[in-house]
Write a structure and sequence with these properties.
Blueprint lengths: L18 E6 L2 H11 L3 E2 L10 H5 L3 E5 L5 E6 L20 E4 L2 H13 L4 E8 L2 E7 L5 E6 L4
Parallel strand pairs: 1-4, 5-8
Antiparallel strand pairs: 2-3, 3-4, 6-7, 7-8
């Protein structure tokens, strides 16, 4: 008997990324990084999803909204440690989180992040698809700031 191959979801079934969840060792350091360094909007008060109000009040979860509306959830995991002390040795299946920036703001953003002495994973990389600058968040997770090529 020939087994029929199962089909996946039809193209267009998924509408958008709902949220991204990251485990973080130091909630305050991560709030500072994503809120103050990267300038993401932290959800507060009525903005916090009702299902997370208690966890946010207990400082176990923090939510940020990216410029395109995707929610970034940070979950406090104080005992978190990557298997390797070398942050270049990837320790999850996720490779990095990438944020887009206008090409005319890219160089200033790189300069600002360097001045803040944010750990750098890769200096500016130029490709046909644009330019990228890779840094580490407080837990060693790689974050890319990228822009399209100038037209």
């Amino acid at each position: 008997m020939i087994q029929e191959q199962l089909q996946g979801l039809t193209s267009g079934s998924l509408r958008k990324v709902h949220h991204i969840a990251l485990n973080v060792k130091d909630m305050e350091a991560s709030k500072h990084f994503y809120g103050n360094v990267l300038g993401l909007h932290q959800l507060t008060g009525e903005e916090v999803p009702s299902t997370l109000v208690k966890l946010v009040a207990e400082n176990k979860v923090c939510n940020f909204k990216t410029p395109d509306g995707v929610i970034l959830d940070l979950f406090a995991e104080p005992d978190l440690s990557p298997p390797a002390s070398d942050p270049e040795q990837q320790f999850t299946r996720a490779n990095h989180l990438s944020f887009d920036i206008a090409p005319q703001l890219f160089d200033d953003a790189v300069r600002t992040l360097k001045e803040l002495q944010i750990p750098v994973a890769n200096d500016v990389v130029t490709r046909l698809t644009g330019r990228g600058f890779y840094i580490y968040d407080p837990d060693g997770f790689m974050v890319e700031i990228r822009c399209d090529p100038f037209e």
